[in-house]
Amino acid sequence: MVFSNLVFLFMFLPIVLAAYFLLPNRFRNFILLLASLIFYAWGEPEYVLLMLFSIVLNYVFGMMINKYRNQITYKKLTVALAVIVNIGILGYFKYSNFLIDNINNLFNLSIENEPLPLPIGISFFTFHALSYLIDVYRKDTAVQTNIYDLALYIALFPQLVAGPIIRYNTVADEIKSRVHSMDLFSRGVRRFIIGLAKKILIANPMGELADILFAMNPGDMSSATAWLGIIAYTLQIYFDFSGYSDMAIGLGHMFGFNFLENFNFPYISRSISEFWRRWHISLGSWFRDYVYIPLGGNRNGPWKTYRNLLIVWTITGFWHGASWTFLAWGFYYAIIISLERLGLEKLLQKMWRPFQHMYVLLLVMIGWVFFRADSFGYSYKYIQTLFGFNGIQAIDNSTLLYLNDYGYVFVLGILFSMPVFDWLKSTFYREDNFMGRWAVPIVSPVFYMGLLLLVTMFLVNSTYNPFIYFRF
């Protein structure tokens, strides 16, 4: 099930909210856990058993790590085994086909390789479990002795299948006892509607166009059409994933949880390092705290720092998918961030500010070509076309046709990839003026209900509704 689904919006969520708030407090965690299991089982009932197995397994590992908390050798062995088993399960489902295909190609073998469906969200709930176990090992959080509370943390449906990645110690107290208020609930509803609108009104149309253009032979399209394709994908992936994160955070507010932010307008960045501090913040901080710093971070001299960056970013690319293009995408960012550390970022800061933004957007879009394409050959041809090296004219009738059909979505996407709402709030929505005291409180409910109605109309009339990050 996905959040942008009519069944979720008008059946599942209202029923869960009604049961959650009508039943006594002591049943609320049970309602959320049951709802989360139903939510996950809706599309893949067989894989709910895998998630339950992961919960039991990691509960046992957590208890064992806590048992040996004062016996360093046994504690290290236990946490090492826990990491190996969790990564092994993830690797089996996510990377076994990739590994067998490459072994067959490399050694000219014919090992049977039945396509293995990827359980939705396995990367996310595995990383949740790992962060919990490592924090228990480090004594950064207390072990959870109640298996149902641990199950709720891992399976909680707002962040179950596509994040954000929530650290256990940030929600441990809220799992036990949460504060509910009308203000928090209404903020959650507004945040959810904004995320839903991002997904339906911007990400979906941009995704349709990106699918059309990336299905074409790059050698047959004009340079301008190729730029439309990569800009469309650049907007799609941002509004798809940040929209999902907004919906997850909004749902968390409705049920009394305060999840940390996951996106902070990354396309306004002035360096690639800044871009990755603003994009998918929870994943970046996870790799920083559980991979980069344990490797030594930047504490052991420049060469080991760059080695650690290469390792972390290559793993980050591979985390996104079992493909050489994902590995190359991660390595690509490792090189750029290393160059910025070597002095490029300081040089950029001295340049004209619009140039800094253009530098980021150009490199990010080139990176998205590798992320979106299925092969290096396609990526290479597409980049050639972007810069006019395929011998086709710079602009053609197809470009104008696509601009006519999708131009308004490009405008919306570019506009709202910047902090427009924040600027409007700081300018007009203040308690010391008419807008803040009277106009906004009256207009706001009408705006959000109208936006929800518009989104519903789009959902009723469209069958195109993918979530990019579900395949990660």
Ordered list of secondary-structure elements with their pairings:
Elements: H1 6-22, H2 28-41, H3 48-67, H4 72-107, H5 122-138, H6 147-155, H7 168-176, H8 182-214, H9 223-254, H10 272-278, H11 281-295, H12 302-320, H13 324-349, H14 353-372, H15 376-386, H16 397-416, H17 420-428, H18 434-461
Count of helical segments? 18
The tally of strands reads 0
Terminal Cα span: 16 Å
Which shape, going by the Cα principal axes?
globular
Report the major sheet: none
Mean pLDDT: 91
* Beta-strand proportion: under 5%
Helix content: over 70%
Task: State the low-pLDDT regions, or none.
Answer: none
Whole-angstrom Rg? 23 Å
Structural class: mainly alpha
Topology as a string of helices (H) and strands (E): HHHHHHHHHHHHHHHHHH
Q: What's this, in brief?
A:
The chain has 472 residues and is mainly α.
